[in-house]
From TrEMBL:
<dbReference type="Pfam" id="PF01370">
    <property type="entry name" value="Epimerase"/>
</dbReference>
<protein>
    <submittedName>
        <fullName>NAD-dependent epimerase/dehydratase</fullName>
    </submittedName>
</protein>
<dbReference type="InterPro" id="IPR001509">
    <property type="entry name" value="Epimerase_deHydtase"/>
</dbReference>
<dbReference type="InterPro" id="IPR050177">
    <property type="entry name" value="Lipid_A_modif_metabolic_enz"/>
</dbReference>
<feature type="domain" description="NAD-dependent epimerase/dehydratase">
    <location>
        <begin position="8"/>
        <end position="227"/>
    </location>
</feature>
<dbReference type="InterPro" id="IPR036291">
    <property type="entry name" value="NAD(P)-bd_dom_sf"/>
</dbReference>
């Protein structure tokens, strides 16, 4: 592992992945620049850390090029996490502005500033939708199904150009990232598991791969803190090894939570009825379909191996989620 010759700049340090990555880098005394919308949202310990420079630039889409250039002064590596996540109600223009155009402008400034590494947080949605027949690998043709996915793929194209300039540049394509403090679909699934209500999913035998936040952070650390040639640049799927069904995911979560499993075999039409419930149906469909990811190319290229088994990660998510819920309940009493 090497020490960067300059700072590591993180965009979106206030976000879910950004918080976890920043904590890890801080623990290793790596000089950081945190590019955020609102500095006040950062932990006070980070704002008062002499090893951290905070750049409050507001909306990156509205930043002047000069502001971006100033922020990159003295930066050795960039981890670009900022952007708009998959959400309903946004049009292609907004996704393209925040996910693609901001990435393009940041890449241009990176090229001019002497940055040696650029890591971009893309998504498996740049390749496919929330479900996919067959296994997704780096050989799978990129055919995004959503405006979000198309904007992420567009961002990757700008990152790819950096490699041709001799800059090591990687776009990471994780599936759903899981952790006890994750949001979105994973948070809803943990809440559903914690409720203990009977669920009609015992018969579901789909195959789905996730990426643990620890694996994602470990991978970024390997990319940023080691010297890699530009020839290893590219877009890489990143996920845990193996896949689990929705039924097994719920069993593991509830085991970790010490909640009775209560999974039952119901006729398929019951699942169909639940899938039609507003706000619940789309989430169930996205978790009950297949989305198996093979990240072997990343493992082999960067001599990387996840530290935990997928089943253990899911179990620990349930255990830590339940523990935090108990603490919150006790504090309210």
């Amino acid at each position: 592992m090497r020490k960067p010759t300059g700072s590591v700049l993180i965009t979106g340090a206030n976000g879910f992945v950004g918080r976890h990555l920043t904590r890890r880098l801080v623990s290793q005394n790596i000089p950081l620049k945190l590019m955020v919308r609102e500095a006040a949202r950062l932990p006070a310990a980070w704002r008062n850390n002499s090893n951290i420079t905070v750049q409050e630039l507001g909306d990156l889409g509205a930043c002047a090029d000069g502001e971006l250039a100033d922020a990159l002064a003295g930066v050795d590596a960039i981890v670009h996490l900022a952007g708009i996540s998959a959400s309903r109600g946004l049009d292609l223009h907004e996704y393209q502005k925040q996910n693609a155009e901001v990435t393009e402008r940041l890449c241009l400034q990176a090229e001019n500033s002497g940055v040696s590494a650029f890591i971009y947080m893309s998504s498996i949605f740049a390749v496919s939708g929330s479900t996919h027949a067959g296994i997704i690998s780096d050989e799978t043709s990129a055919e995004p199904k959503t405006e979000y996915g198309r904007s992420k793929l567009a961002g990757e194209l700008y990152v790819n150009k950096l490699a041709r300039k001799g800059i090591f540049s990687v776009s990471l394509r994780p599936p759903l990232v899981i952790a006890p403090d994750a949001g979105g679909n994973w948070k809803q699934l943990m809440r559903l598991s914690a409720s203990g209500i009977p669920l009609p999913f015992a018969s579901l035998d789909n195959r789905r791969t996730y990426c643990g936040i620890e694996t994602l952070v470990d991978a970024i650390m390997v990319l940023v803190l080691q010297n890699w040639p530009a020839s290893k640049s590219g877009s890489y799927a990143l996920a845990e090894r193996g896949a689990v069904s929705l039924a097994d995911t719920l069993r593991l979560l509830r085991s970790g939570m010490s909640v009775p499993r209560r999974l039952y075999h119901f006729p398929s039409f019951v699942f169909g009825l639940l899938s039609g419930v507003p706000g619940l149906g789309a989430r169930l469909q996205s978790l009950a379909g297949d989305c198996e990811v093979d990240a072997c190319r990343f493992y082999e290229t960067f001599e990387f191996e996840p530290e935990n088994e997928l089943a253990d990660l899911i179990y620990r998510c349930g255990k830590e989620y339940a523990y935090k819920q108990r603490l919150e309940t006790e504090e309210m009493m």
